[in-house]
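Hi, here's the filled form for the chain we discussed.

Project: internal
Contact: R.S.
Residues: 414
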Amino acid sequence: MLYNAYEVQRTMLSSAAAWASVGAEMLTNPALPMSYFGFGPILGSALEVFAHAAMSRGKPTFDIEQIEIGGNAYGVTESIVLHRPFGNLLRFDHAGLPADAPRLLIVAPMSGHFATLLRGTVARMLESCVVYITDWADAKMVPVNAGRFDLDDYIDYVIDFLRHIGPGTHMLAVCQPSVPAFAAAAVMGQREDPCRPVTLTMMGGPIDTREAPTSVNDVAMNQPLSWFENNVITPVPLTYPGAGRKVYPGFLQLAGFMAMNLGNHMMSHYAMFKHLVEGDGESAAATKGFYDEYRSVCDLTAEFYLQTVEHVFQRHSLPKGEFVHRGEVIDLGGIRDTALLAVEGEKDDISGIGQTKAALHLAHNLPEERKKYYLAEGVGHYGIFNGSKWRKRIAPVLEAWMHQHSKKTLKIVA
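And the returned structure, exactly as it came back:
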């Protein structure tokens, strides 16, 4: 019932948004007198803001056509190099990179947004690396006969992707995937897998949510697991390829994120309205671009979502040494040579300070010179991987860490 009710509401809003868009175009059309005086520009701008907020959105594209390095522009090639039912492995490359450019696997969050949320992350790292990224599928688009997808599968996908890219790969996990990426590195370290990552950078990840709990952690802790299963898990409607699959809908995740900073979101839309009234299309377009991405959401499989709530936020299985992969307890001591970089934002309201840093203490067999912590002052959660502070302050730290522990100088313990 929950998903069906949402679909009815979405259909109604999409229709209203279409009419609002038509009205906005008429009221702001320079060929019509009403666009120059009276309430025409004001009402037209208000309708445009409503239309943008209410319109339906699909999966965005990365749309990284070129990259500029040292004043030279290079065309970017995007390709699918490995296909899996629940996520593809994408590769980004350009002619401006040297033949020995480092290879970086970016593990995107599976937390309600598409991998394109990391468009800025990919673009910045393309300046020095061949970039691969996990392009997770929208669960409602995956037929039921494709099977389940849980935390075990997530870890297996990361391992398979690393093996496909080959030895000498660096890995970057942004937010939620810090836990399965850390676990994958430990599993590969235990097995002395030659394709284990040379470096693993975790940014704003919930490795140990007992450190500086946030409101996100409180929500997960204040209800039993059965509450989540009974209240936020719902089957996919018949109108989608994944009909019947039980999922945690992306629209619920988006509603939760919006509610956390509702005042800020309202002010952003009010600012967009003022920009439109003033004719400042460039500023309005910047806000639209952000919300086009922010409101594009996807569903998670029920088993993956519930296991994440249980093991990451409620039982803290990984930091307690109780996290199990395919029936075997993961030994974080298996990380002996993968250099770890933990990055946190001073103003992160999703993963509190200390949650990601905990990984450095948990990797007890890793020499201290292969551990690094970086606190980005004045940076919130999204600023860790997007925006000017990411590009100018955080990315150089990551690049330097990768260079310091490159395959050329790394002595593999085997």
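Let me know if anything looks off before we file it.
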